Amino acid sequence: MQKNVIENGIVTSPVNQIWAPEEIQGGSFYSHLLKKVHKIIEEEGDWLWLHNRISNEKLMASEFEILSKKFAIIFKSLKLEPGDVVHLIVGNNNYFYPALGGIWILGGIASLGDSILDSNTIANQLMETKAKLVICVEETANNAKEAIAIVEAETNQTVHLFSLGVVTCVENILARFDITNENKAPEPFQAQDPKTETCVIFWTSGTTGSPKGICHSHFGQQNFFSLAKTQIMSKDRNNPVMQTTSFFHVGGFNTPIIALEKRQTDNHLFGKGFSNKLLLEVIIELKPVNVALGAHNIVQMAELDILDKVDPAELDSVKMLLPSGSAVPPSCVEILKKKFRNLIGVGNMYAQSESGMISAGFSISNLGMVWPHVKVKIEDPETGNLCGPNEEGEICAKTPYMMLRYLNKPKETQEYFDKDGFGHTGDLGFYNDEGFVVYVDRMKDLIKYNNIHVAPMEIENLLQKHEAVVDCVVYGTKDPNVQELISAVVVKNPKINVTEDELIDYVNSQVSDFKQIRGGITFQDEIQRNSTGKLQRRSTRKWAEKHGKKSSKIAKK
Asked: Do 112 and 248 touch, CB atoms closer than 8 A?
């Protein structure tokens, strides 16, 4: 891999020449995308675009435009105007993208809701966006109904609820398709300024508070996909695409759209009905080169015995595993390389919903090559000065597809962007002499022991190497004498016996004194993660504080 370029404390890509930002064709992201789809179908014919491997529902590429137009006609009859918001809580339903198309034809804004959120959080999102319409599925209908009741009780806002498919006491919007003539759809909305007008709202994971709306423009979305399709997924159109990631999160949102632009079939498995057994069955059937997975799915494959029951030859097609949500522990990567015999590596991709992709590679020691036309700097969080090579500070990034703003949060937006347009990621890291950025941990997650900062991920990676540990999370327990004690919650392999003291000895014998586990280890059946596989440190810590206890073998303070 080529080294990144370092100039005046700024790290950039060595291959900027392979891509350049391009202007929107047609005035909106939808129109730009549709032109590309038209060209592919005209030149090469139609193809199977989406295949839900849980429900076995399928969608052809040509249906994207037809169904988008039907949605647009229906939404227009419901008085959707340019700038109005439709909130979708539909998981990985195949109609997700045509619904987006219908919203965008009218100049509306799509708000992409996490399907596992509770009614209070959904209600907050509806009030933040002033959503006119909510689209749900059976699994999300009850929370959607409760959320709308909360909104209408607390505000003057009226919200209409529809479903994709049959749901009790909710109108099935798909039932209107038979009486809707797509040829009567209006011409697609033309944004006056594609660089500043919002077309989609993602949401932060809420791991450090209530989810914040992340507003992205037509221009930003177009340029992310324009670059991403040159960097992500196989260039061979005959290679199938697989993902276990969610459509509503930026990490999974891009895969079907890239597949649409590259004439590929996206086989997706997410939500109710998912199992590791089904995942392996689909891998064996499709024989994909790349598989996009939640990081937790990759860890489970490494730590549990599910792969031991599979003939290794059945997995030989897989060359790259692409995780989303968090990094995969190095110990798991080494295990997977033995089970996937042709595996080049597990992707180490660094991105945020706010910034899009920043860098990517397959090294377990760094974040790989900075993407074209992306700039990275490391900044001292106290002084704001630039850090030099191997000096830790906050990772800041500037991309051609940055978010516009946090929804209704000018203070947080101002705190995120600096005067030069760099975004403060909240991540601690450094770049080495070769310009490769090294991620240390989330700054807010750092444990402070006797005024020394300890990165939880370092201890987690060490714990993960123990054969009895399936999953773990490390956090700080408040202590008046030393500030915080390093503590952990561990999921054990049910086939291997291990005690708390044995695991503490295992870690403490390999780390410096200030990194030793002094707050004990609590065992749990599973670690709480959100729908993208990201660790829920706050809720896990609260659970451990309530149910856990300090170890009987605590190292001296």
From this structure: yes
Q: What is the pLDDT of residues 105-149, one digit of tens each?
A: 999 999 999 998 999 999 999 999 999 999 999 999 999 999 999
Angle between helices 250-261 and 29-44 (to 10 degrees): 40
Q: 432 and 6 in contact (C-beta within 8 Å)?
A: no
Query: What length is written for the chain?
Result: 557
- Superfamily designation of domain 29-221: ANL, N-terminal domain (3.40.50.12780)
Mean pLDDT over residues 236-240, rounded? Answer: 75
In the block, residue with structure tokens 């714990």: 463
The secondary structure of 429-441, three-state, reads EEECCCCCEEEEE
- What is the residue type of 218? H
Q: How many Å apart are CA 257 and CA 392, to the nearest integer? A: 36
What are 77-111's pLDDT values in tens digits?
A: 999 999 999 999 999 999 999 999 999 999 999 99
pTM: 0.85
Mention the CATH class of domain 5-20+275-441: alpha beta
- Residue carrying structure tokens 């870690």: 507
Other beta carbons within 10 angstroms of residue 124's beta carbon come to 18
CB contact burial 190-215 (16+ within 10 A = b; e otherwise): ebeebeebbbbbbbbbbbeeebbbbb
| Domain 446-547 fold | GMP Synthetase; Chain A, domain 3 (3.30.300)
Q: Strand, helix or coil at 488? A: strand
8 A C-beta contact, residue 59 and residue 94: yes
CA distance 285 to 371: 33
